[in-house]
Task: inverse folding
């Protein structure tokens, strides 16, 4: 067979394959599994609970206590790390406060309406199903609760996969495993003890912070393109949800753009390199499922932080461009 | 058109026939996609190594940022000039090869580069499935930035995962306080 004929035939076969696999993939998510995702979302929002969970990544594991109260006076949630250096994070409806007793510092990250907080609402579960195949896994038991398993298999290598185990009765998420394209665990959260309902407000008191140093982040919406920055990432399935400037460490103004595929999120931070700063190293570092890619563009430090494989984070980082605005 | 593209690839078109397929590629994304697939298949048949996904845009970026040399320095020794001549010949070949890879990553190019690269359209080339599966070279491993915890705290507030899992993922924010504050 001549090379040209082979090429033409292969090109046709390629087209048919792409079309067929796209059709098949769309059809695979199970309605039951999507309904379970909705139940988990609802439970996370509605339930009060107190429990202990273990976070594992690589050889590292750490135990934390989480307490949540949902009532008409507003929701409040507290995370206390029980191993190593003590630290607490408290989330209320308007802010996240991170208490670091060792350095007597409180870091405040305020939430407000203009920030367009992305939520996993019922409508968005459909969008999520475009990027993951959502199916039921084997049921089992976690922390004494019988549970149902939901598997989110990524449709491409741009994102990780997830296995979630939820309490069969309430939908409370008891275990979450993130896995890479080889099926190997990247990180996991597992409750070892949990009691649902009956949480008193006393248990959610923040630590006393008189004379502590407060780092309060100011956040404002912005259009980075007007100042010459573009990010033409073209990463299938990820869309831009947030574009703000904020203060970060040492009150320097930093631009932040957030992309999400319905479950995973990737943030791009852009900040000027100050004279005297260490030279910017280009490359990737990771914490569990979070990859952090840094590079320098036009005398600015670009830091891309995302719960996505290194290659995806790198692609977004490499798409950051600067052109002098007219 | 496909037959013509195929013949062109095999070097069977005469010089005067060339402008037509070139023009078609510049305005018709479908023809460009066909050209791209033919080349991918050709490369696969010849066991050519794949270039990284962003190769085209990176190459275009570097070309664009290189100063245009209007009059080369007089002091250049002849031997060096010979080297540059052959290098520039190689660059022309690379520029032609580049067109295909720009089509793979069309939206990554900042501005239309000069010369033969004009072929690459600014938009179009619906090669998303292919783009998704082409992996760039693994990046260099570097230590965590000293401000990692600040970035994580700012990032996680926007992750939809929080609405599915509550605050548990914030444990990553603080699991390394030593890294975050000691070095600042």
Result:
């Amino acid at each position: 067979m001549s090379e040209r004929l082979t090429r033409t035939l292969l090109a046709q076969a390629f087209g048919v394959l792409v079309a067929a696999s796209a059709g098949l993939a769309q059809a695979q998510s199970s309605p039951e599994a999507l309904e379970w995702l909705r139940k988990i979302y609802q439970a996370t929002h509605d339930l009060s609970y107190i429990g202990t969970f273990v976070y594992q990544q690589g050889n590292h594991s750490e135990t934390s206590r989480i307490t949540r109260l949902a009532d008409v006076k507003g929701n409040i949630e507290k995370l206390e790390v029980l191993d190593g250096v003590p630290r607490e994070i408290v989330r209320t409806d308007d802010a996240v406060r991170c208490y670091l007793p060792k350095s007597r510092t409180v870091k405040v990250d305020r939430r407000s309406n203009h920030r367009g907080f992305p939520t996993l609402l019922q409508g968005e579960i459909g969008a999520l199903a475009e990027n993951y195949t959502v199916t039921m896994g084997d049921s089992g038991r976690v922390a004494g609760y019988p549970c149902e398993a939901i598997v989110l298999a990524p449709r491409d290598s741009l994102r990780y996969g997830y296995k979630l185990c939820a309490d069969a009765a309430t939908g409370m998420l008891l275990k979450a495993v993130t896995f890479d394209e080889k099926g190997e665990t990247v990180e996991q959260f597992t409750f070892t003890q949990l009691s649902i309902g009956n949480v008193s407000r006393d248990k959610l008191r923040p630590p006393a912070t008189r004379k502590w140093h407060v780092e309060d982040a100011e956040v404002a919406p912005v259009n980075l393109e007007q100042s010459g920055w573009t990010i033409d990432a073209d990463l299938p399935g990820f869309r831009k949800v947030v574009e703000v400037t904020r203060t970060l460490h040492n009150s320097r103004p930093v631009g932040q753009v957030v992309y999400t595929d319905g479950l995973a999120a990737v943030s791009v931070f852009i900040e000027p390199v100050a004279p005297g700063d260490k030279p910017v190293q280009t490359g990737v570092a990771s914490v569990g499922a979070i990859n952090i890619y840094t590079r320098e563009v036009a005398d600015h430090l670009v830091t891309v932080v995302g719960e996505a494989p290194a290659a995806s984070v790198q692609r977004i980082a490499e798409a950051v461009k600067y052109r002098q605005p007219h | 058109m496909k037959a013509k593209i195929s013949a062109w690839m095999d070097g069977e078109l005469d010089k005067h026939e060339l402008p037509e397929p070139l023009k078609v590629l510049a305005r018709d994304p479908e023809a460009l996609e066909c050209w791209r697939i033919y080349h991918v298949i050709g490369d696969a048949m010849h066991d050519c190594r794949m270039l990284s996904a962003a190769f085209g845009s990176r190459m275009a970026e570097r070309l664009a940022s290189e100063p245009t040399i209007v009059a080369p320095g007089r002091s250049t020794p002849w031997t060096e000039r010979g080297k540059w001549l052959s290098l520039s010949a190689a660059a022309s070949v690379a520029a032609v090869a580049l067109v295909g890879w720009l089509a793979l990553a069309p939206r990554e190019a900042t501005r239309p580069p000069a010369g033969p690269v004009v072929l690459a359209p600014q938009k179009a080339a619906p090669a998303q499935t292919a783009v998704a599966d082409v992996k760039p070279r693994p990046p260099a491993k570097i230590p965590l930035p000293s401000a990692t915890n600040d970035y994580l705290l700012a990032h996680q507030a926007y992750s939809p995962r929080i609405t599915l899992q509550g605050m548990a993922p914030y444990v990553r924010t603080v699991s390394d306080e030593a890294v975050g504050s000691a070095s600042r």
